[in-house]
Design goal:
Length: 289
């Protein structure tokens, strides 16, 4: 009745998922033009037109079980959609699918099938139904041992998400650390994890500053190291003053509670994405088109 090449051609014409294209061809006895119209009537082919739009809003969410946790980000074009129950349900569904599967990369997630439908197909369908671009951006999946605790925190309903693992201590301490991560945005866990290019750039700037101050070489070297230590305290989680007890570092706070921070992940929705500037009235108009 129709071939694989027909399915491929219909996908290219409409941007619809493979399963939807097969359904359309089956419903129209393999007639390509009628299949295009079938998809249009269903609203599925609209998704193609939204692929080049910018999706920089959306949600982070965190789910976990006894041994694993997932933090992920799914983007939408507007904050209106990010607050839509259908969008929220999809984000939570996707997080739980990843939690309960062996998926490790975004590409694996998009091609993963649930009830005969890939995640990519689901995204195409929800894009068409909601009316704006939906984009699965990223996720991190972590594991813990029996002595470790997950700490998670979602700020502003999911605009910022933080997930940490603490060995020892307890769930409350782990959550406190996650709240700190969300609020203070550390770049990395410890100074050993500071990216070399970031450290080199900062050291270069500091050296230039000290040289311009005309300090003797021996004093200049001490000043460089002192300012680098201050830099570490600003960007490294373990060295930051803990938000609830400023006289303690995060590391000292956790240690006081017989624990050690093992890892941290922080997502902020849309970070690094160049956002399109629209006024409120335009956003409303976009929703009713």
């Amino acid at each position: 009745m129709f071939s694989a090449s027909d399915v491929k051609e219909l996908r290219e014409k409409t941007g619809a998922g493979m399963l939807d294209c097969k359904k359309a061809l089956e419903a129209t006895n393999g007639n390509l033009e009628e299949a295009v119209d079938w998809l249009r009537k269903k609203g599925i082919s609209k998704a193609e037109k939204k692929e080049d739009r910018i999706a920089a809003e959306g949600l982070c969410t965190i789910v976990s079980n006894d041994s694993e946790a997932v933090i992920l980000e799914v983007n939408s074009e507007t904050d209106f959609v990010a607050k839509n129950d259908e969008f929220k349900n999809f984000v939570n569904e996707l997080a739980n699918i990843i939690l309960n599967s062996p998926l490790k990369e975004n590409e694996e997630v998009l091609s993963y099938q649930v009830n005969g439908e890939t995640i990519q197909d689901k995204i195409v369908a929800i894009t068409a139904k909601i009316g704006e671009k939906i984009s699965f951006r990223r996720f991190v999946k972590v594991q813990k041992t029996s002595t470790e605790h997950f700490g998670s925190y979602l700020h502003m309903g999911g605009k910022i998400g933080a997930l940490v693992i603490v060995d020892g201590a307890n769930d409350e301490v782990a959550k406190d650390v996650a709240m700190h991560v969300a609020a203070m945005n550390p770049v990395c866990l410890s100074r050993e994890q500071v990216p070399s290019d970031m450290l080199d750039r900062e050291a270069s700037v500091i050296k230039e500053q000290v040289m311009n101050e005309g300090k003797p070489a021996d004093i200049a070297e001490k000043m460089v190291q002192g300012r680098l230590n201050k830099f570490y305290k600003e960007i490294c989680l373990l060295e930051q003053p803990f938000i609830k007890e400023n006289d303690l570092t995060v590391e000292a706070y956790v240690k006081k509670n017989n624990g050690t921070v093992i890892s941290m992940t922080r997502f902020a929705v849309g970070e690094g994405i160049e956002k399109k500037q629209e006024d409120f009235a335009q956003e409303v108009m976009n929703q009713i088109k």
